[in-house]
Specification:
Its EC number is 2.1.1.-. The protein is an alpha/beta fold and 331 residues long. The protein is built from 13 helices and 9 strands. It has 2 domains: 217 residues, Rossmann fold (3-Layer(aba) Sandwich), CATH 3.40.50; 90 residues, rRNA adenine dimethylase, C-terminal domain (Helicase, Ruva Protein, domain 3, Orthogonal Bundle), CATH 1.10.8. Helix 6 crosses helix 8.
Length: 331
């Protein structure tokens, strides 16, 4: 049964507030305002039933998505905004929702934000049980979106930050091409390192696409709305840096056979022996190209690499890029 929609008192439109406070989107912060309430409502609907939940909104700007969140009556809403110019418009929403939604405004860079402290009152759930009543929702700046999701995937792998409480869900916007990459299945032309990183730890869904013309100013690309729900049983339980290292090497040579990419994981004197051994241990075809390897097969390759690291400790810190620079610098 759907929760009742909270009706806010009459407020100026987001467009009017932008004019009133003379707010301009800053290019250096990758700001684009979303003014269509039907679209912001649809973004929040994609997050599922958030009534009574603890919601963290990233980059609320003038408060378009914020209004749609408030209407769904979360128990607590924390908006994290780096640009203090938006404080007056957010305070207006805070005042309007007083007595209905416990709204907190944090003027901060989300990359420095401590989710565990902010959500300390939320009861922790067993990872294998139901997700906690936590939702992260945001119209992310293009300039930090990929970096941010990688940070959060690492936190998921370590069950830290917002994921110290369980499998907290995310509903986020990305450039359409990035959204497609995150979801891209095996053999898809968009499949890349980001695809596998996301799919190793999360169930990824590209919910819908927002045309660029819906934003002010209009970006050069369309925007994809993506949900990420951490898996009960991730494909890998290994150090995040190790997994990232393996995938980075494989996708550095996306169109080559995977053996060529994998060889660079090892010092030259061990390269031929361990390169072949890696694929034998993982039971993966070494002639497959990186985008032709399944997520499960990548998990096996990561575990095989871990076994080789245990047997050959000298390869753990090996980085062919550093060795290559040393060789070039010697000439």
């Amino acid at each position: 049964m759907c929760a009742a929609v909270l009706r806010l008192p009459p407020l100026p439109t987001i467009r009017d507030l932008i004019r009133l406070y003379r707010l301009k989107a800053l290019k250096q912060l990758s700001q684009n305002f979303l003014l269509d309430e039907r679209i912001t409502d649809r973004i929040v609907k994609s997050a599922g039933d958030i009534s009574g939940h603890y919601v963290c909104e990233v980059g609320p700007g003038p408060g378009g998505i914020t209004r749609s969140i408030i209407k769904k009556h979360p128990r607590k809403l924390i908006v994290i905004e780096k640009d203090e110019r938006f404080l007056p418009t957010l305070e207006l929403l805070q005042e309007a929702s007083q007595g209905f939604v416990d709204m907190h405004i944090e003027i901060n860079d989300v990359r420095d934000f401590n989710f565990e402290n902010a959500l300390s009152e939320v009861p922790k759930e067993d990872w294998l049980g139901s997700p906690p009543p936590i939702n992260i929702i945001g119209n992310l700046p293009f300039s930090i979106s990929t970096n941010l999701v990688i940070r959060w995937l690492k936190a998921i792998s370590q069950k830290q930050s917002a994921w110290a409480f369980g499998r907290s869900k995310m509903t986020l916007t990305f450039q359409k091409e990035v959204a497609e990459r995150m979801k891209a299945p095996v053999t898809h032309k968009q499949r890349c390192r980001l695809s596998v990183m996301c799919q190793l730890w999360c169930n990824v869904k590209h919910k819908f696409t927002i045309p660029g013309r819906a934003f002010i100013p209009k970006p050069k690309v369309d925007v994809g709305v993506v949900t990420l729900e951490p898996l009960k049983e991730p494909f890998v339980d290994l150090p995040f840096e190790m997994v990232e290292k393996v995938l980075r090497h494989f996708f550095n040579m996306r169109q080559k056979i995977s053996l060529k990419s994998a060889l660079r994981l090892f010092p030259e004197e061990l390269r031929e022996e361990l390169g072949e051994k890696l694929f034998i241990l993982a039971d993966v075809d070494s002639n497959a190209r990186p985008f032709e390897i399944t997520t499960e097969e990548y998990a096996r390759l990561c575990y095989a690499y871990k076994l080789l690291c245990d047997d050959y400790p000298q390869i753990v810190d090996f980085d062919f890029r550093i060795r290559r620079k040393d060789i070039i610098g010697s000439y």
